[in-house]
Amino acid sequence: MDTTEAAVEYFDLKDSCWELSYRFANEPENKDDDNDGNSKNKVLRKFYSGKVQLQFLSDGYTTNLSAKSNQVGVSEQQAIINKVWGWDLEVSDQDSLSYILFSADITLPPPIGTSERFYFQARVDGDASEGEALSLVDGSVTVKRDISAPGGGWWGIFKGADGILAQFRQLGEFKCRPIAKP
Question: What is residue 39's predicted lDDT score, i.e. its pLDDT?
Answer without folding.
Answer: 54
